[in-house]
């Protein structure tokens, strides 16, 4: 009992330590400010947030999964060179697109929605709103549109002049990475164990391909047996559409209970051993701190929402380009002067 109380105290401290705060903006020497703040476009493009939201809402109304895809796009942007829209660049000249990396190829989506938002914003206020901020706002709007929390987004990111396919291959966790490897990849980005569990909660929406979890169904540890932390009945159902070979691209909900609603069923599923990815289930089975967090979020949706919003702001603040660094791209797929 005493141990579990002190664990809760540690968790509360970790969660609080991630609360961000910032002073009121004033750029030194007249240059653009070197930090992010929510009012960044209030004068230069007052309708920016409204335009992003309306186009995201239209896209999600057309296809519910798009909310999930846009949240993931932000994650895969921020974990590679920071939240700088590097993930949006197509290959050309010296640029090798991150779109072809192992985690992204045949998997990452939402690029056309970002293009549509960018085109609308270039019309409304040319050369003003960065692609990196568009992706960040789209992730927030997507979350709240499908039932998740809403939060204020610090703004003022600028766009990268390059991409890193190596960074994309190495920094983004794989679904069969060990718990330690995943936690290390988060810590390298300044995110802690609470951020890891809260942000993994975005797997309450969206889909995964068979190829991302097949190993669990047949030969998890090389002994020819399925993952013993996966419910046997659930595994049998998954095997019907995810065979030993073939069907790589077949799609499955990450949260089979409420796949298009942002809620805490993801965590309840983990407790029932019905997490889809190995990286999901290990949060409940591999570490006492993450196990406790899974239980807390499964029991308290409000706490999950609060931590999720806080951790999304923290992830969105990973090494942004500000001031005179980078540029404001005209087309999110290309640098302005290749
Ligand atoms: C903790 C480590 C993580 C791992 C190993 C991981 C892995 C994956 C994998 C393998 C998929 C399915 C991809 C496919 O098969 O096409 C997926 C989907 C998804 N991931 Fe993660 N993920 C992680 C963390 C995150 C985080 C931090 C976020 C956002 C905050 C996120 C958001 C999503 C969403 C929303 C989807 C569904 C996308 C869609 O339906 O288009 N994931 N993830
Ligand atoms: C993880 O999955 C990749 C891609 O399917 C595979 O090449 C690798 O061997 C797997 N790693 C482990 C430790 O099982
Ligand atoms: C399981 O994987 C191991 C190591 O990768 C391999 O040697 C073995 O043949 C596999 N077993 C089955 C039944 O696929």
Task: Describe what this molecule looks like in 3D.
This is Peroxidase. With 338 residues, this protein is mainly alpha-helical. The chain has a domain at 201-311: Orthogonal Bundle (Peroxidase, domain 2). It is built from 14 helices and 2 strands. It has helices at 2-17, 48-62, 65-78, 111-124, 131-145, 165-171, 179-187, 193-200, 214-218, 232-241, 265-271, 278-285, 288-299, 301-316, and strands spanning 207-209, 251-253. The protein has a two-stranded antiparallel ribbon with strand order 1-2. Helix 2 (48-62) packs across helix 5, helix 8 (193-200) packs across helix 14 (301-316) and helix 13 packs across helix 14. The protein is globular. The model is unreliable at 1-5, 7-11 and 16-24 (pLDDT under 50).
Quick synopsis:
The chain has 338 residues and is mostly helical. It contains 14 helices and 2 strands. The chain is globular.
Task: Sketch the major β-sheet.
Answer: 2 strands, antiparallel
Number of helices: 14
CATH homologous superfamily of the domain at 201-311 - what is it? Peroxidase, domain 2
Residues in helices, as a percent range:
40-55%
What best-fitting shape do the alpha-carbon axes yield?
globular
Structural class: mainly alpha
Strand content: under 5%
E-strand count: 2
Poorly predicted parts: 1-5, 7-11, 16-24
What is the terminal separation in angstroms?
A: 61 Å
Overall pLDDT metric:
93
Just name the CATH architecture of the domain at 201-311.
Answer: Orthogonal Bundle
Enzyme class: oxidoreductase
Active site: 76 (proton acceptor)
Cofactor: heme b; Ca(2+)
Protein name: Peroxidase
């Amino acid at each position: 009992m005493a141990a579990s109380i002190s664990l809760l105290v540690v968790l509360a401290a970790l969660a609080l330590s991630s609360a961000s705060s910032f002073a009121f903006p004033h750029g030194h020497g007249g240059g653009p400010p070197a930090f992010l703040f929510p009012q960044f476009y209030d004068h230069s493009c007052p309708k920016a947030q409204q335009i992003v939201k309306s186009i995201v809402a239209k896209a999600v109304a057309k296809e519910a999964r798009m909310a999930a895809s846009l949240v993931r796009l932000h994650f895969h942007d921020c974990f590679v060179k920071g939240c700088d829209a590097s993930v949006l660049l197509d290959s050309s000249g010296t640029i090798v697109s991150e779109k072809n990396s192992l985690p992204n190829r045949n998997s990452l989506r939402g690029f056309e929605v970002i293009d549509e938002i960018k085109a609308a914003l270039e019309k409304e206020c040319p050369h003003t709103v960065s692609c990196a901020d568009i992706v960040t706002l789209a992730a927030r709007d997507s979350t709240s549109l499908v039932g998740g929390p809403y939060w204020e987004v610090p703004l003022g990111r600028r766009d990268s002049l390059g991409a890193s396919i190596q960074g994309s291959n190495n920094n983004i966790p794989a679904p069969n990475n060990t718990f330690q490897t995943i936690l290390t990849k988060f810590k390298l980005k300044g995110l802690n164990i609470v951020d890891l569990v809260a942000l993994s909660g975005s797997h309450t929406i969206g889909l995964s391909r068979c190829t991302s979890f097949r190993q669990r169904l047949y030969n998890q540890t090389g002994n020819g047996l399925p993952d013993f932390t996966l419910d046997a009945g659930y595994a049998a159902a998954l095997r019907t559409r995810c065979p030993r070979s073939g069907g790589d691209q077949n799609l499955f909900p990450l949260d089979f209970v409420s796949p298009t609603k942002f809620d805490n069923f993801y965590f309840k599923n983990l407790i029932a051993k019905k997490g889809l990815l190995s990286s999901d289930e290990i949060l409940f089975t591999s570490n006492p701190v993450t196990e406790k967090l899974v239980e807390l979020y499964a029991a308290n949706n409000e706490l999950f929402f609060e931590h999720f919003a806080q951790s999304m702001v923290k992830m969105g603040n990973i090494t942004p380009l500000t001031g005179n660094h980078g540029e404001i791209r005209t087309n999110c797929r290309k640098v302005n002067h290749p």
